[in-house]
Amino acid sequence: MSDNARLAALMAAEAKAMALLDAIETRGLIAPGRTERAVERDIYALAEAEFGVAHHWHKRIVRAGANTVSVFSDNPPVRAIGADDLVFLDLGPVFEEWEADVGRTYVLGDDPEKHRLVHDLDRVFTMLARHFHDHPDITGAELYAHAQRVAEAAGWVFGGAIAGHLVGEFPHARWPGEKDHYRVNPANPTRMRDPDAQGQEKHWILEVHLVNRARTYGGFYERLLPSAKAVAV
Q1: Which pLDDT score, from 0 to 100, does residue 175 have?
Q2: DSSP H helical segments within 1-94, as ranges?
Q3: Helices (H), 36-163
Q4: Is 100:16 a contact under the CB 8 Å cutoff?
Q5: Which of 7, 223, 227, 4 is nearest to 133 (CA)?
Q6: Could you tell me which of 183, 185, 179 has the C-alpha nearest to residue 146?
Q7: Which has the closest alpha carbon to 68: 190, 215, 226, 224?
Q8: Which of the four pLDDT bands, split at 50, 70 and 90, describes residue 38?
Q9: How far is Cα 95 from Cα 44, in angstroms, rounded to an integer?
Q10: pTM value surpassing 0.85
Q11: What is the largest CA-CA distance in the chain?
């Protein structure tokens, strides 16, 4: 399959995943008093019944309140959603053979700083995507360092252990090669535009995890790294 066809398939999978997020909102699954586990179970059922999702390439993440500072690999105690909480989702549904990876954050109260954080998630995402396209030889480590600088300039801490990763045909986690080189993190000194171990063009998920300086709450946003045209000024 050509690189353009692979990208088109990944974009189609992402569009379906975005529709799943919209359906979660429409059905009011995220509401005060509900537990993270209950929301996660409802997402699983919704994805299967209405979107035909039989596999998720990573665990479904629902984080609320203090748990929003936790990274992907953490398993904090299950919380109930509070009336003034931030809540974020991190979903990895598989559509046919193609992986999607999307994240979105919701504000349940009127706290202006929490609303500012959610606004900044998309803004920082766009800034990182633009920086990637402006620097053709950028490495995973360099983009991660830039994510930290941009977060700091916006008044937040970059909370993620990574700022993105490869995505592709399921299961991409079994592809050969050094795993750190398939992530946007300090341990990746390779050019992000280099071909993967199979000689294919790499397609990246870009993720932004912002946390307040007191580390009491955070927010998360992720999707495919957009084209240069999409982030042009």
Answers
A1: 66
A2: 3-26, 36-51
A3: 36-51, 112-134, 140-153
A4: yes
A5: 227
A6: 185
A7: 215
A8: very high
A9: 14
A10: yes
A11: 49
Tokens of 2: 């050509």
Torsion-angle region of 78 (φ positive above 0: left; ψ -120 to 50: alpha; else: beta): beta
Residues 162-210 pLDDT 10s: 999 999 887 766 666 788 999 999 999 999 999 988 888 999 999 999 9
Q: What are the pLDDT digits (tens) for 89-99?
A: 999 999 999 99
Domains by residue range for the chain, with CATH: 3-231 (3.90.230.10)
In the prediction, which pLDDT does 73 show? 86
Among residues 152, 203, 138, 140, which one has the least CA distance to residue 175?
203
Q: 177 CB contacts (<8 Å, ≥6 apart)?
A: 196, 197
Distances (CA, A) of 53 to 15, 20, 97, 98: 14, 10, 11, 11
Q: Which two tokens stand for residue 190?
A: 């390779």
- How far is Cα 58 from Cα 78, in angstroms, rounded to an integer? 18
Residue with tokens 């990746």: 188
Cα first-last separation, the chain: 32
**Alpha carbon distance 90, 129 (integer Å):** 19
Output the pLDDT for position 231. 75
Per-residue model confidence (pLDDT) at position 81: 98
Reported as type and span, the H/E element at residue 183 is none
Contact present, 82 and 76 (Cβ < 8 Å): no
